[in-house]
Amino acid sequence: MNMNEAGRRAVASAVTAVGLCVAAGVAFAQQPAPASAAAQPAANPVAPGAIQALKDMGAHLQTLTRFQVTTEVTGERVLADGQKLQHTATASMDVVRPSKLRARMVSPRSERELIFDGKTVTLFTPALKYYSTVDVVDTIGGLIGRLQERFGVEVPLSDLFLWGTPAAPLDSIQSAMNAGQDFVGEDLCDHYAFRQGNFDWQIWITTGSKPLPRKIVITNRADEARPQSVSLISWNLKPTFKDSIFAFTPPKGASKVEIVPVKTK
């Protein structure tokens, strides 16, 4: 295998890993309900207050222009005999709306970075010193859609940029309920539970006039073992980073490789 081919494979692996850190914590937004769901009586009604809570959270998220957000995800992998194995990963993002983003994804097996300055997006694997750049003149929301469609890249916590927009997946929720209140860390949160297709998901949203998501739990009902992912989300709404962090400078010895688009049918 030559160096360029090795680099392409490494970047392809990085592309996949970009979303794996937190995809489990936000994938409910893209899960469609089964086609037969409309013909079945709902096990639980859709509580208007629970849906309104998602709308209020989304509206507040859209007002945030400069922030840092981190997440720690614990997921489960089910073996053939039904035994569950836990794994963890973390992701952090520095954000300046509408078009600057820097994300870092870390798991025991890899470390990846994604840097976007509004004109160019860079994917970087520090351990291997491979990086790829793609010209993308768009907002963060537009970047998320383009990377997913063209390269199969999932941006960490991408749903944070969908809530509060027409793309928010509210219509596919089959049941919704208010499950009371709990503390996440030191934050008192309203706890809501939803059912959407083959997934049950719960979200804890801070109380008050500035609602933020602090915890997400997803259960996959399509698997008899009911594997779960748990995402804890922390916020810094007064970050001190400088805009220079959104400019990528290849480190000494780094190699630029081409990122290959996903094949279309």
What does it look like?
By secondary structure, the chain is of the alpha+beta class. The chain has one domain: outer membrane lipoprotein receptor (LolB), chain A. The chain has helices spanning 3-26, 48-61, 140-151, and strands spanning 66-78, 84-96, 100-107, 110-116, 120-125, 130-135, 175-184, 187-196, 199-206, 213-220, 228-236, 255-256. It has a twelve-stranded mixed sheet with strand order 7-8-9-10-11-1-2-3-4-5-6-12, with helices on one face. The longest helix has 24 residues, at 3-26. The radius of gyration is 19 Å and the shape is globular.
Task: Give the name of the CATH architecture.
Answer: Clam
CATH class wording: Mainly Beta
CATH topology descriptor = outer membrane lipoprotein receptor (LolB), chain A
Count of helical stretches: 3
Residue runs with pLDDT of under 50 for 5 or more positions: 1-39
Give me the count of strands.
12
Number of domain units: 1
* Cα gyration radius (Å): 19 Å
Structural class: alpha+beta
Strand content: 35-45%
Mean pLDDT: 86
Q: What characteristic shape results from the CA principal axes?
A: globular
For the record, give the distance between the C-alpha atoms at the N and C termini, rounded to a whole number: 27 Å
Helix content: 10-25%
Widest sheet, order of strands: 7-8-9-10-11-1-2-3-4-5-6-12
Quaternary organisation of the protein chains: single chain
CATH superfamily label: Lipoprotein localisation LolA/LolB/LppX
Q: From N to C, what is the helix and strand string?
A: HHEEEEEEHEEEEEE
Major beta sheet summary? 12 strands, mixed
